[in-house]
Amino acid sequence: MSVVSTKSKTSSKEEMKEEKIYDAIIIGGGPAGLTAGIYLSRARMGTLLIEKALPGGQAILTEIIENYPGFPHGITGPELMQKMEEQAVRFGLKIEYGEVVEVKIKVGKEDKKGKEDKVKIVKINNQEYRTLTIILASGAEASKLEVPGEEELRGRGVSYCATCDAPFFKDQKIVVVGGGDTAIEEALYLTKFVREVTIIHRRDRLRATKILQERVFANKKINFAWDSVATKILGKEKVEGVLIQNKKTAEEKEISCQGVFVFVGNVPNSKFLYELIKLDQKGYILTDDNMMTSQEGIYACGDVRKKLLRQVVTACGEGATAAFAAQKYIEELKGVSYK
Ligand SMILES: Cc1cc2nc3c(=O)[nH]c(=O)nc-3n(C[C@H](O)[C@H](O)[C@H](O)COP(=O)(O)OP(=O)(O)OC[C@H]3O[C@@H](n4cnc5c(N)ncnc54)[C@H](O)[C@@H]3O)c2cc1C
Predict the structure, then answer these.
(1) pLDDT reported for residue 12
(2) Were 75 and a residue from 71, 233, 241, 313 both cysteine, which residue would form a disulfide, CB within 3.0 to 4.6 Å?
(3) Cα gap 254→200, rounded to integer Å
(4) In ligand 1, which atom is closest to the CA atom of 65?
(5) What is the arithmetic mean of pLDDT over 82-97?
(6) CA distance 166 to 171
(7) Which residues form ligand 1's pocket by a CB distance below 6 Å?
(8) pLDDT of 164-188, one tens digit each?
């Protein structure tokens, strides 16, 4: 494993301390980060992956993944992600736990070829790691409805994860807010536990993939509140209902329920980047075709990137591209030639 070591002065007694410089630090251990980890570790790059929670990312929040190639009958999210982690670790990927709070670039001296020694610094609370390249794979998390009652009743009937919370709602009545793939998949899964599901959707038709629409319309436990938005979640100690408004007629209606599952999109985990990297208006990272961001040697992949389709398969593909691009950059910095 090729981790560069430098010596630096750390005290008045000229005591020398070893400062490791990793070839690559990957931020985030979801499908994008773990795939980048597999590629970089197989290329024998000194790589560290930093994860703030559990490896696996959002994919561990879903019961079944049916659209990741190679599993004709689907695979559970946790199982797929456990396999990816195992594969990365087998090739030598080092994983550390902590939340990255800042990324900085330290511009150093020029080398013999006139190239700047740009070491990047990744900060986790009071610890700093040094690296030649960074792969940003910090993904996204569920958007909130931002309505009264949501924050107060979170964990007391308001949920953003069906796999985590469905068993708490056995034989109860719940609502699902959203109309995309995730909302419909999760609503279908919830019917295994609950008595009745009402899907509240702001439009008069679903955005979800056709096969999911066929399943949801055939499911007798599911009904719809079309053209409607949730305006308030009702209840004192726990959820007792939801207030909805029809966007076409402005009519308000109360739906009595014990649970509200929210699947209305994502927000990218990019706040820790401050102004270092170019983002779009929503905070998604802008990259070129090789996943390079506005900063040389810093790459981004997966759900945190501005792109059309946020899925496991695209996250993995981009993780591989980012890793390969980073490897080429590192080899160039080190003057490695294959001629
Ligand atoms: C309920 C649900 C169902 C889904 N179903 C499917 C499906 O059936 N098929 C499909 O293909 N896709 C599905 N998806 C989407 C899929 O899970 C995502 O597209 C994919 O996980 C994105 O991978 P990622 O690695 O880019 O990011 P993520 O999976 O979001 O992983 C990012 C990781 O980074 C970590 N992190 C974030 N910030 C920091 C930080 N500052 N420091 C350290 N670590 C950090 C997070 O803890 C997380 O582990 C589903 C998503 C959800 C929520």
Answers:
(1) 41
(2) 71
(3) 12
(4) 8
(5) 97
(6) 10
(7) 27-33, 50-53, 57-59, 61-62, 65, 67-68, 99-100, 137-140, 182, 185-186, 269, 272, 302-303, 310-313, 315
(8) 899 999 999 999 999 999 999 999 9
